[in-house]
Amino acid sequence: MSSTTAQLRHRELTQEIYNIGDEVAEYIEHIMEAVSDWDLELVEDCLAEFDEIITEARDDSRTVVAELSGLRHALTTGIRQGTVSARATVEVDVDKPERLTASELERDFDIDAGLVDVRDLSTALNARTDAVVKRLEATVEWVLAETDKVANDLDSLSLPLLYGRVAAVIESATSAWINAVGTANPAYVRTMRGSNPPRFLLERARIDAVVARVADKLAQKRNAVS
Fold it and tell me: Which domain of life does this protein belong to (predicted)?
């Protein structure tokens, strides 16, 4: 591999690390938007999608880091020494979010088991939802910061291990919302559903519409030719 080709591949692999982190963060944001819209079914669907993305991220990051590590070593030592500068560890001040459970939500934002005032119920459920969204937001920041750290220093931490920890935090927080809000108070959740339509669904709908129009034009051309 020539020096120029090696440098190009180095940039591609480094960018791929960022791409993997961005995709994980994006699917966490999908869950956030579904929770903010009080859409229980969508939350469950988004969590299932996230689980698939995390599995891919762990596998892909393992492969990318292995290749990039060898390439970076070759470009900083040996016959191509100095082609890529050795990178120092980047300090990022983002704390690892803790797991959030349904019992914690119920303890911190209690709902009286007796006669419940509608305003009290609303306040508690809104607070539980806000707490989950904030935990998901904090996890997005953590994912991006840790991914950036690895892109600069491959020895700083293990990306597959990181994404495993991310999955644990996300699955716990999402399940907490499902159990302490979604299934615990279905009537209230139904009234709130649709209050914050997820942006990613609107984007998917836009893309689907474009694809449908293109497919329709291609079909018309084929019919015209035949």
Answer: Bacteria
Cβ–Cβ < 8 Å for 13, 70: no
What is the secondary structure of 114-177 as a DSSP string? SS--HHHHHHHHHHHHHHHHHHHHHHHHHHHHHHHHHHH-TTS--HHHHHHHHHHHHHHHHHHH
- Check: CB of residue 188 under 8 Å from CB of residue 125: yes
Task: Give kind and range of the element (H or E) at residue 58.
Answer: helix 40-76
> What are the Cα distances from residue 203, in Å, to 159, 193, 210, 213?
29, 19, 11, 15
Q: Which residue has the tokens 């469950």?
A: 44
The answer to whether the beta carbons of residues 178 and 40 sit under 8 Å apart is: yes
How far, rounded to the nearest angstrom, does the alpha carbon of residue 64 sit from its chain's CA centroid?
19
The full set of domain ranges for the chain reads: 3-195, 198-226
Residue with tokens 């088991």: 113
Report the C-alpha gap between 100 and 102 in whole angstroms.
7
User: Which mean pLDDT values do the consecutive 10-residue runs of the chain (226 residues) have?
Assistant: 76 93 96 96 95 96 91 65 47 82 95 75 95 97 95 91 97 98 95 92 77 72 68
| Phi, psi angle pair for 101, to nearest 5° | -115, 165
